[in-house]
Amino acid sequence: MLRRCLIAIVLLASIPALAQKRPFTFEDMMNLKRVGDFTVSPDSRWAAFAAVDVSLADNSKQSHLWIVPLAGGTARRLTEPGPGTEDRPRFSPDGTQLLYTSVRGGSSQLYVQPFQSATGTLAATPRQLTNISTEADGAIWSPDGKQILFLSAVWPNCPDDACNRARDEAADKSKVKAKVFDHLLYRHWNAYDGGKRSHLFLINAACTPAAPACAARDLTPGEHDVPPFSLGGQDQYQFSPDGREIAFTANLDEVQATSTNSDVFSLNLTDPQAKPVNLTGANKGADSTPLYSPDGKYIAIRSQFRAGYESDRFRLQLIERATGKITNLTENFDRWVEFVAWAPDSSKLYFTAEDAGESPIYAIPVTGGEPLEIVRGFDDSPTPTADGKTLVFARISVRFPTELFTISIAPPAPLPPPTAARRHHNNTPAVPVAASAKAEASQLTHMNDALFAGIQMQPIEAFWFAGSENKQVEGFILKPPDFDPAKKYPVKFLIHGGPQGAWGDDWSFRWNPNLFAASGYVIVMINPRGSTGYGQQFVDDVNGDWGGRPFDDLMLGLDAAEHQFAFIDRARECALGASYGGYMANWVLGHTDRFKCIVSHDGMFNPVSAYGATEELWFNEWEFRGTPWSNPDLYRRWSPAAAAPNFKTPTLVIHGQLDYRLDVSEGFQLFTTLQRLNVPSRMLYFPDEGHWVLKPQNSQLWWKTVTDWVDWYIGTPGSHLHAAPPAHD
Question: Residue 462 is part of which domain span?
Answer without folding.
Answer: 457-721
